[in-house]
Amino acid sequence: MLTALLETGERLCLGDGWAKEKLLLMREKERFCCPQCREDVILKLGDKRIFHFSHLKGNTCRFEHENESEYHLRGKLQLYQWLKRLGLNPVLEYYDSKINQRADIIFNVENKHYALEYQCSNISESVFTKRTKGYLSVGYIPIWILGGNQWKRKNTYLTSFSEFHYMFLQKYSSNLWSIPFYCSESQKFILHQSIQPITIRYAFSHQKLVKVDKMLLEELISPQKESPILPNIWLKQLNHFKTQLIRTPGHFQNPFLRELYSNHLNVSLLPSYLGLPVANSTCIITPPLIWQTYLFMDIFMNCNVTTPIKFQDIYFSFMKRIRKNDIQLRKIPLAEDERFVTLALLQYLEILIKTNVIWVIDCHTFTLNKPIKIPQTVIEHMKLEESFYKKYANMIFIK
Fold it and tell me: Where is the Competence protein CoiA C-terminal domain (predicted)?
């Protein structure tokens, strides 16, 4: 804890540049108490840990949750001082009695009120959602920042995201999803922008590292869309995923593969327009290859060039797969009211239009542009795949 009350009711914030000598004198003369539970707290001024307040042993203050680590305390302090340098007059550890919550930091920008939470340890979805809804109910825009200790980078393009990480997804435009991290050791923001899952575990993202003293507020509250995914890297990972599907022990029991086989399809020989990046598929846990292939089997595979394909049928087919648990959706507490499934389906149809798989009859009806062609051999598939990506990559990946 970095704030306490004096006996006079004055608030003492350790983020405001107090010298140790001054604090030592205050500790001898003053009594400090917790701003929330009003119980006594101790001012700790050690040489190894950051200066902080601590409740007496045995105290059960509900706001001293998580037993804040040194990593968390330092990060919270650094974020507070960053906002101060920007001239935003932030308030550290602000308690709002209306919702009975204490934010790590609050600040105002252009008549908008923000509540910043710096999260370095796991919390449940229910706690995350409750706190988010609490802030929204009193007019705060919540900004959740993950601790850099939670970052699991695979390479320059790929990051391992768990469902815990995905809770922190924030949406800034129809096609831009972001998860911000902050590392208190390196004093850097790690901004994951334009997040695009390719498997349940891994997602592509533009990874931007910014030193805290170089960071602009706009990059946190209104980021811009960054560089797109490289088509060759996406295709490499997609083919790796296909290989993993059929090499996994017991793969014959995989419901997706079993349904492919029952439809006389081979995961290695699927059309190249299955398994493509769709901006709002971040709301779908099921990998793009799988949910797009389900749509293919349910709708497109059984159509000819004269068959009208209604968007309503596509949507109902997708929702039926959800009810059967073939497709799973992701809960996104920071953007849960949006119609992301509809957006994802429309964006995928837009790709199919651009790649001449379907064409538009009217705004709700489509038809195949030409008969469905399924590759019969690996060589045929490779040729079709190479031709597809060479012809359409710029339309699919550069937006």
Answer: 233-380
Query: Vertex 264, ends 260 and 270: CA angle to 5°?
Result: 65
Query: Which of left, alpha, beta for 325 (phi over 0: left; psi -120 to 50: alpha)?
Result: left
Place of tokens 């749509």: 295
Do 149 and 241 belong together in one domain? Answer: no
Q: Token digits for 50?
A: 């950051």
pLDDT tens per residue, range 50-75: 888 888 876 777 666 556 788 999 99
Examine the domain organization and report whether 275 and 201 are in the same domain. Answer: no
In a domain, 306, yes or no: yes
Which amino acid is it at 395? Answer: M
* Total domains, the chain: 2
Which of 199, 221, 243 is the last residue before a domain boundary?
Answer: 221
Q: List the Cα angle 394/201/337 in 5-degree steps.
A: 80
Strand partners, 359: 367
pLDDT tens-digit map of 182-231: 999 999 999 998 899 999 999 998 889 999 999 999 999 988 777 668 89
Which amino acid would we find at residue 19? A
d(CA 66, CA 200): 28
Kindly report the length of the chain: 399
Residue environment code for 40-73, b if the CB has 16+ CB neighbours within 10 A, otherwise e: ebebebeeeebbbbbbeeeeeeeebeeebeebbb
pTM score, whole prediction = 0.88
The neighbour count for residue 13, using CB atoms within 10 Å, is 16
DSSP H helical segments within the chain, as ranges? 20-29, 70-85, 125-137, 163-166, 218-221, 231-247, 255-262, 288-295, 311-323, 340-354, 378-397
End-to-end CA distance of the chain: 45
Between strands 112-119 and 140-147, the pairing is: parallel
Q: Considering the domain boundaries, does residue 392 fall inside one? A: yes
Question: Are 342 and 306 contained in the same domain?
Answer: yes
Alpha-carbon span 305 to 15, nearest angstrom:
67
pLDDT of residue 155 exceeding 80, the answer is no
Q: How far apart are CA 245 and CA 252, in angstroms?
A: 10
Paired sense of beta strands 309-310 and 358-362, if any: unpaired
pLDDT band for 174, please (50, 70, 90 cuts): low
